[in-house]
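name: query_chain
kind: protein
chains: 1
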Amino acid sequence: MAKEKQVRCPHCGCVAYGGSAKCPSCGEYLSWESRIVYLPALEPKKLIIFDFDGVLVTVSWKGLFEANKQVLFHAGKDWRDFFPDLESFKLYSTDWQENRKKWGIENSEFLNKIFNNVYAPYSVCISGVEEILKKLSKKCQLAILTNGHRSRILMLGKNVLGLFKIIVAAKDVKKLKPDPEGINLILVETGFQKDQAVIVGDHPTDIKAGRAAGIKTAAVVWEHGLSERKDFLDCSPDFFLESLDDLPSLDF
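structure:
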């Protein structure tokens, strides 16, 4: 029996078998021509770098409040000296690494684990992320860049993690975002040029890192993150994303 030829779905880019009437990924009907004409697989021409918290998983002020309290306690400081309640804590950054510098706390693996262990129960994968990432991975190469601990990324699950070409976490670089070191590392490892890449983040540090690296930037202002448009006034992102559904139409 002859092996069926592969074809590329003109609707979503998925590679399917030539005998299929429907694309197995998007369900759209394949024309007779696309079912019998061989189309070679295309290498991804673009790279999307995702921040983690607020982009792929939810962010919780309550969780951040409790985690930072414990970090300060284990660093020998009284958290009440910095923020007496949740509302006053919201004046600080959502980025724990940024806060610790303001509080005079040295970075350490021990404190990172404290933060992650306390915060983990408050954060869950955003609904619909897996489906969107699968769709994007047909046309783009995907990466994660986070200032957080690598262990937290495991919550995405094996199926989702397999969609990413490279994951860069706090311990993989000497300088965290907004420094562009992590982005530059990803560009080198994947072979993409600056004009082929975009970073998607929910915090000004993500946008500042992208601009410093010379790539496009997309600011997330959907309900799962904690930032609003006004929070990005000083860093001027190239794009604003108001929902997960905006991701597939990102044009860069």
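note: The CA atoms of residues 184 and 213 lie 7 Å apart.
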